[in-house]
Structure formats: structure tokens, C-alpha cells
Amino acid sequence: MASVIMSPESERDLMRLGDYITQQFKSHKTALNTIRKIKARINELERFPLTGKPLSAIVAVDTDYRLLGCGSYLAFYRFENDMVLIDRILHGRQDYVTILLGKIEEDK
Fold first, then answer.
1. In this predicted model, what pLDDT tens digit does every residue of 24-69 receive, in sequence order?
2. What is the CATH number of the domain that holds 93?
3. Which of 2, 15, 90, 91 is the right S-S partner for 49, CB 3.0 to 4.6 Å?
């Protein structure tokens, strides 16, 4: 089985998400349930680390990132040496390519 390691930034993403959901829905319980579901989905990567889709299948960019759908959220990770490295957890409507890789110049 692979080890799943959360980056400090991905932990902050979850904290910000929890705060946002608590404020928007006035429910700490809803926030905890959402985070619990995301973490459960991420933990599936211990047994199936290649479940996520390569980011390069969505965007024409050479990258090792993979993404795993977690409801409306996406976990971005890399799989190296039997370790799943979770880098970010972002909402699917965010400009996640720019957040992860910066501005990409398109060929003219």
C-alpha cells in the first residue's frame, strides 16, 4: 500500500474550505462532513494510487500531477516511490491549472 502525505498547503486548503462552508451554510457539521468525505476519498489512494486522472489528459501540459474528484472538489497529487503526495485541494470551478502551474503560454 502507498503512503498518503498531505502537504501543508493542502491542509490549509481543507481549513479554508471548512471555514467557507461553515460561514456560507452556517453549519459546522456540514463543513466537517464535507472534509470527512474528501479525506475518505483521498485515503482510497493508499490502495489505488493511480485512480486519479493525469492532469495532462485535461490540459496539454507535461506534468506529473494527477487529480482525484472528491465531490465538487479536486485533490491534486503526485505518485512517487510508493507515496501519494497531496499538493492541493481545490474547488473544481477554480482556475486550478493556473493555481498549480502558473500562467501557461499557449503556442501561437
1. 999 999 999 999 999 999 999 999 999 999 999 998 889 999 999 9
2. 3.30.2310.20
3. 2
Alpha-carbon gap, residue 61 to 107, rounded angstroms:
12
Q: What is the mean pLDDT of residues 68-73?
A: 96
Backbone angles phi, psi at 95, to 5 degrees: -80, 70
Query: Is residue 25 included in any domain, yes or no?
Result: yes
DSSP secondary structure letters along 54-90 = EGGGTSS-----EEEEETTEEEEEEEETTEEEEEEEE
Per-residue model confidence as pLDDT tens digits over 4-30: 999 999 999 999 999 999 999 999 999
Which domain, by its residues, includes 94?
A: 3-101
Q: Is residue 36 part of a domain?
A: yes
User: Looking at the predicted structure, is the pLDDT value of residue 108 above 50?
Assistant: no
